[in-house]
Design goal:
This protein has 315 residues and is α/β, with parallel strands linked by helices. The protein has 15 helices and nine strands. Strand 5, helix 6 and strand 6 form a beta-alpha-beta unit. Helix 4 packs parallel to helix 6, helix 10 packs across helix 13 and helix 10 runs parallel beside helix 14.
Length: 315
């Protein structure tokens, strides 16, 4: 059994807390750290051990995970005073689960390599519900042997861990994935408000377009949870975090000299939605801006939305 591998986990927030719980459930010895000790309450009850600093955590761990909000947080925890780098064991592997920037990932990777340790970028996709249920993708970039060696721990957290390539490639895949989603979200807000303003019922419109060739690729299924019922609280993925991902994606475009007109427009939309005070609402609340501009309000009966979704699935 896996019990001889000690897993260190830093960042017990909305996502990290659930992932750390799943590692504990799989029978690993887990050492945890967070800015707020109370976030670790139920992990400590379940048998996890507390570490006062990232450094102390690294000294005890064979494999380390961080799940943090921003690249600056990851940099501080890994390379700052009392950081992981000061305590990391030779041969240990460090997977950063956060959505990061490629340049920060490469910088940390180099620093850890100099200490004889591996750093891998390992962003995740699946949201809080996926983190809880283990229905989650984990994209990994870095040393393939380190990935293979620690695949069992990754499998304790997500059902779809995949090796993407060298360091930084997983971060790029994650940014392309999330940026695409939000660019499409902003476009769908425009097309659907037009359809509703032209006299269509939003659920009937969704059922109609779901039959077409675009619909068969599940293009429109993202509209089921927030947009059609008009329900943006509590968030599945907070607007503030989504806006950060989009900021990182558009920044990478600028760094590489890639014009990203539509993506930059999506970033402006999301920034405007944040300025409305919606940062804590679901990221799809950005679609409310377009409803306002179009003079349309979309809030279908959730039961009808559910039935439409079921008909589409069995269709």
């Amino acid at each position: 059994m896996a019990n001889d591998v000690v897993v260190g986990f830093i960042g017990l927030g909305t996502m990290g807390g659930k992932m750390a719980t799943n590692i504990l459930k799989a029978g690993y010895k887990v050492v945890v750290h967070d800015l707020h000790r109370q976030s670790a309450g139920h992990h400590l009850q379940a048998g996890a051990e507390w570490a006062d600093t990232p450094r102390a955590l690294a000294e005890k761990s064979d494999v380390i995970f961080t799940s943090l909000p921003e690249p600056t947080d990851v940099e501080r925890v890994s390379l700052g005073a009392d950081g992981l780098i000061e305590g990391v064991k030779k041969g240990a592997a460090y997977f950063d689960l956060s959505t990061n920037s490629q340049s920060v990932v490469k910088k940390i990777h180099e620093a850890f390599a100099a200490k004889g340790a591996h750093m891998l970028d390992a962003p995740v996709s699946g949201g809080p519900s996926g983190a809880a249920s283990r229905k989650m993708a984990i994209w990994v970039g870095g040393d393939k042997a380190a990935y293979d060696r620690h695949k069992p721990v990754l499998d304790a957290m997500g059902d779809r861990a995949a090796y993407i390539g060298p360091i930084g490639t997983a971060t790029v895949a994650k940014l392309v994935h999330n940026m695409s989603g939000y660019a499409i979200t902003c476009a769908l807000a425009e097309t659907f408000t037009m359809g509703v303003k032209a006299g269509m019922d939003p659920v009937a419109l969704w059922e109609a377009v779901r039959q077409g060739v675009g619909g068969r690729r599940f293009t429109f299924d993202g509209l089921l949870d927030q947009f059609l019922p008009g329900k943006y609280d509590p968030p599945n993925f907070a607007l503030k975090l989504a806006t950060k991902d989009v900021a990182l994606a558009t920044a990478l475009g600028r760094e590489l000299g890639v014009p990203m007109r539509i993506c930059n427009l999506a970033y402006a939309e999301m920034t405007e939605a944040c300025n409305r005070g919606w940062e804590g609402r679901d990221s799809r609340s950005v679609m409310l801006l377009q409803q306002e501009r179009a003079g349309v309000k979309i809030a279908a009966d959730p039961e009808r939305v559910k039935q439409a979704a079921e008909r589409a699935k069995s269709g």
